[in-house]
Amino acid sequence: MTTQVMPGYFRADNWFQKMMRMKSFWIIFWLFSFAYPVYRSLTRTLPPPLPIYYTVPEFTLTNEFNKPFGSKDLKGKFYIANFMFTSCPSSCPGLMDKMDVIQKRIRGLGTKAAIVTFTVDPTTDTPAVLFKYARKRNTNPYIWNFLTGSKRELEKIVIDGFKVPMGNKETVTKKLEDKTITLMDIAHSDRVVLIDAQGQIRGYYSTEKVEMDRLMIDLGLLVNNSFSKPKIEQIKKIKEI
Question: Helix 92-106 to helix 209-240 angle, to the nearest 10 degrees?
């Protein structure tokens, strides 16, 4: 018996299949894959450096653990400062909610970044009161410190150092539905201040979302620049040798 073999059908490769089998295509592809990111990094426009507003004078206050805490403990760290008092009836609760979010966003920086909260009501906000307040907010004591001291000490650092207002406790009346209630309030800044590792003020921010995002970006730029400086200094030394 004779077996008949049916002729097979061969489809010609299209241009894409031919190109995929070419060594030159893969060489060009991998060269472009590596070269393009390098080109982008060399040609991208870097944001301008953040301005330097003031240098925060050295200070020593008392933290929520009733221990001395100040600029020496913050040396070499980037920190975010804010101002409040625990019995604040107006802007403080919203501000502190934003600070809670900031604490979560900077935890990846480890000990390189910190938060420092200054009370503007030292008579009420003793270390014990601040400790209870901090624990209620579940703050991380390795990142976030609450500071108090004498009124004169706080006015010196808040007003003269950070250049933000700090008033006296005053009686304020507010209408709540059909009732009029009397509250004690203190005029103070609800802005957040960014300080670099040299103790220099690099930015003031409101609590709006766009400003909080800008704060995080600016903090990241400062931290990244601090990592690149030692490399630059090392290159300079090598060239000198």
Answer: 40
Domain assignment present for 36 = no
Cβ-in-10-Å burial (0-12, 13-18, 19+) of 137 comes to middle
**In contact, 191 and 204? CB cutoff 8 Å:** yes
> In sequence order, which residues have a C-beta less than 8 Å from that of residue 239 and are 6 or more positions away?
none
CA 161 – CA 159 distance, rounded (Å): 6
pTM for the full model? Answer: 0.73
Q: What's the average pLDDT block by block, 10 residues per block, for the chain (241 residues)?
A: 54 62 68 60 66 96 98 95 89 91 92 95 96 95 96 95 84 52 61 96 95 95 73 38 34
β pairing state of 192-195 and 78-84: antiparallel
What is the spatial distance between Cα 217 and Cα 201, in angstroms, rounded to a whole number? 15
* Total tally of structural domains belonging to the chain: 1
Range of the domain at 123: 60-225
Q: Quick one: which of 187, 155, 145, 161 has its CA closest to 53? A: 161
User: Do residues 201 and 207 touch, judged by C-beta distance below 8 A?
Assistant: no
